[in-house]
Amino acid sequence: VRPERASYDAATGTRLLLAYLAVGLVLHPAVRALARAAGATGYWVRPAIVVTLLVAVILMMKWFVRASGATIGLHRWKAWTRREKIYVLTVVPLAAVAFGIVFREHFAWLAETGGWTRLLLVLPTGLLWGVVQELIYRGLLQTELVRRFGAVTGVLSANFVFTFGPLHSNYFGFGSDAGPQWSMYAAIFGIGLFFGLVYQRSGNLWIPALLHGIWPLNMA
User: Fold this and answer.
1) Do the Cβ atoms of 55 and 194 come closer than 8 Å?
2) Angle, nearest 10°, between helix axes 45-59 and 28-37?
3) What are 120-178's pLDDT values in tens digits?
4) Which residues are within 8 A (CB) of 76 and not within 5 positions of it... i.e. 6 or more apart?
5) According to a count of CB atoms within 10 Å of the terminal CB, is the N or C end of the chain lower?
6) Is the pLDDT of residue 4 over 60?
């Protein structure tokens, strides 16, 4: 276990929070709203949004935050501990097989509605989307909240924003008679808390990013 520890000063931490606000609370809702307003419905829309957010995080880290990827847990493979390598090389394939069985109807639906071409597009898009969410909510946000407020408050606060923020605002049921989908929010909070704890215990953001990426419902 390599507990996450901040290796940057307070000014860098403030820039991390501002980077989160710019990407997570401004850019992401903006590009989604723009796509809806433009009536964009092609298969390329979702991959374009995901790539846009990924590029935004990379540029913010390089030019605004001015910190390396290791600051938010993006460690090079050679810096991983043996336990981390074993964990990823065993848990990720096993989880992928389990998800493939449990969500086989979901994958069958994707293949039937869009064909194998669409399936080959949504699989890498879903993987990348899971990674991007971890970069934004665990990398940019949780890293700094833990530094400021400690592990318990930092992890819980970041996960609260991840669950109930704009990322999953569609489950509030605005404009419909269904109302909030509390069971879905409970599931999101639970899996998000798991990702946050894995990151906090290891300090390695790649692990929850890969686990989040293979979640089948990212592939829609």
Assistant:
1) no
2) 150
3) 777 888 889 999 999 999 999 999 999 999 999 999 999 999 999 988 888 887 766 67
4) 70
5) N
6) no
Cα–Cα distances (Å) from 53 to 112, 130, 165, 178, in that order, read 29, 12, 16, 30
Does the pLDDT value for residue 1 go beyond 90?
no
Q: Give first-to-last CA distance, the chain, whole Å.
A: 34
Nearest alpha carbon to residue 139 among 28, 31, 54: 54
pLDDT computed for residue 11 by the predictor: 96
CB 103 within 8 A of CB 216: yes
Structure tokens at 103: 């969500």
Pair 51, 128: CB distance under 8 Å: yes
**Residues 130, 115: Cα–Cα separation, whole Å:** 23
- Asked if 66 contacts 12 with a C-beta cutoff of 8 angstroms, the reply is yes
Cα–Cα distance for residue pair 52/142, rounded to 1 Å: 21
Q: Which residues of 42-79 are buried (b: 16+ CB within 10 A; e: fewer)?
A: eeeebbebbebbbebbeebbeeebebebebbbbbeeee
219 C-beta neighbours (distance < 10 Å), count:
23
75-134, pLDDT tens digit by residue? Answer: 999 989 898 999 999 998 998 899 888 888 877 877 777 666 777 777 888 889 999 999
